[in-house]
Amino acid sequence: MGSMDEELDRTLDAVGPRLKHLRLRRGITLTDLAEETGISASTLSRLEAGLRRPTLEQLLPLARAYGVTLDELVGAPPTGDPRINLRPIACSDGSVILPLTRRPGGIQAYKFVLPPGADDREPDLRTHEGYDWVYVLNGTLRLVLGEHNLILKPGEAAEFDTRTPHWFGATSSGPVEYLSLIGKQGERVHVRAAPKPGQSE
Questions:
Q1: Inter-axis angle of helices 56-66 and 15-26, to 10 degrees?
Q2: Is the pLDDT of residue 158 over 80?
Q3: Dist. CA 132–CA 157, nearest whole Å
Q4: Does 186 score more than 50 pLDDT?
Q5: Helix and strand counts by DSSP (H, E) for the chain
Q6: Which residue has the higher pLDDT, 32 or 3?
Q7: CA atoms 78, 82, 84, 86: torsion sign
Q8: Measured between alpha carbons, how far is 181 from 149 in angstroms, rounded to an integer?
Q9: Which residue has the higher pLDDT, 17 or 70?
Q10: Where do the HTH cro/C1-type domain residues begin and end (predicted)?
Q11: Higher confidence at residue 10 or residue 155?
Q12: What does R_g of the chain's alpha carbons equal in angstroms?
């Protein structure tokens, strides 16, 4: 367990310099990035300086802003099938992210595992450019979307424009696992029904 914690520490410590390098390579200011991601310029500065560790809610919009996958952003080494990096990424808040796609751009797929949460927890609503489709696999997912406080059970899905203030969390009933497909603004997920037997497509 100790070696895993040390590896997590090294991974998170390396995120700051990588974030700064990506921003400078794009030639944008902290203010520009703050407007694009919904993360304050002061928080972005602390993340780049390594004075603050990134959370799940911060890594996703940053990966989208820089056009890289989440595993590339945190520097997770590729393992397993070379076509898909199945290496889980542990976050400082106890959540785990499993990237299911590697290519930058287009729709990105992730599996999230969130630890049990407090039912009275005050959500930290975020906004950013993009579109999100969420499907609950196990457990109960709390989705705060604007003025709506939704409880999603296994088999239930939601989709929304991420410019709407939103927040995800587990409830006190236990951890939750869900899939998230995240696309660019206006890039919605298209679900296609299978044709009936004997019917051509």
A1: 30
A2: yes
A3: 11
A4: yes
A5: 6, 9
A6: 32
A7: negative
A8: 21
A9: 17
A10: 19-73
A11: 155
A12: 18
pLDDT at residue 41 tops 70: yes
Neighbouring residues of 175: CB distance < 8 A, sequence distance ≥ 6: 113, 114, 115, 116, 138, 139
Q: Are 41 and 58 in contact (CB under 8 A)?
A: no
Q: Please say whether the beta carbons of 23 and 49 come within 8 A.
A: no
Q: Of 106, 101, 76, 78, whose CA–CA distance to 7 is shortest? A: 76
- Where is pLDDT greater, at 36 or 9? 36
DSSP 8-state secondary structure symbol assigned to residue 54: -
Could you tell me the pTM of the whole model? 0.60
Task: Determine contact, residues 125/162, Cβ cutoff 8 Å.
Answer: no
Closest CA to 99 of 181, 13, 188: 181
How far is Cα 85 from Cα 93, in angstroms, rounded to an integer? 22
Structure token pair of residue 149: 């406080």
- SS3 at position 6: helix
Token pair, residue 167, equals 């927040």
